[in-house]
């Protein structure tokens, strides 16, 4: 259970409490905040309130985040594409269309279900829903993920992500023909105020986000690129490429309505490198493009 307290400042007065609290943490949706208010987990000056309460200068907002309900995550036998495994870490190539970890209402068929059947020991740092999961990629993004089998390994891998020493390279197909051969997008990402399910480039309640890219091949209306992540924000490559006017092909959330017929964005996490938590040796893995991606490139070439 986590607890926070906010004191309302001058620029915030007369705003709705659900808006103020959801802006406090980009991971909290407004709907989730409204539920916490109704359940009495969010109070004003120690009194229960309503989601539409307009805050006053000096109001003290107490937020108590309840622990997530334990979900019964069942191990499921799956044919996982494992690139590396030892007693500390595991590297797996996730197929397009697979969700990384369970969520309420979606507790089977995820990578975590398969990992739990494959190995009995996974780090518990991220709780029952995300055992061993250090970082994740979107459902429709394919590619390499590192998984921690114990808490020491987990902390080491997370620290490497924070220190930006993990190598992560992605291949993508984007709309439009990028004229220059390489570039860097340095633009902060946060929740989209108009659509809480989406991320956007914004200065409000955002985090630093940096993506480097280089052009691999140009087609008539599309470009094949490689992106290297310096930071790992939610939907980072998808948001950044849209921001500079070259959204990902097939992206249902950030791309144009008329796009290539794909189930989700053409994005593949092809290269992953990190220092082994125990041996301190640098390990690097590369997964080839999935068949659908190769076929798409061939189609574009012709």
TrEMBL record:
Q: Which SUPFAM superfamilies match?
A: Alpha-L RNA-binding motif, Pseudouridine synthase
Q: What is its EC number?
A: 5.4.99.-
Residue ranges of every copy of the RNA-binding S4 domain listed in the record:
15-79
- Gene Ontology molecular function, alphabetical: RNA binding; rRNA pseudouridine synthase activity
Tree of life domain:
Bacteria
Q: List the CDD domains.
A: PseudoU_synth_RluA_like, S4
Q: Does the keyword RNA-binding apply?
A: yes
Which residues does the entry assign to the active site, renumbered to this chain?
A: 138
Q: What Gene3D superfamilies does UniProt report for this protein, alphabetically?
A: Pseudouridine synthase, RNA-binding S4 domain
Q: Which UniProt keywords apply?
A: Isomerase, RNA-binding
GO process annotations (BP): enzyme-directed rRNA pseudouridine synthesis
Database matches in Pfam families:
PseudoU_synth_2 (PF00849), S4 (PF01479)
User: Does RNA-binding appear among the keywords?
Assistant: yes
Q: Which reaction does it catalyse?
A: a uridine in RNA = a pseudouridine in RNA
Kind of enzyme, top EC level?
isomerase
Q: What does this protein do?
A: Responsible for synthesis of pseudouridine from uracil.
Protein family (similarity comment): Belongs to the pseudouridine synthase RluA family.
What is the official name of this protein in its record? Answer: Pseudouridine synthase
This chain's source organism reads: Bacillus timonensis
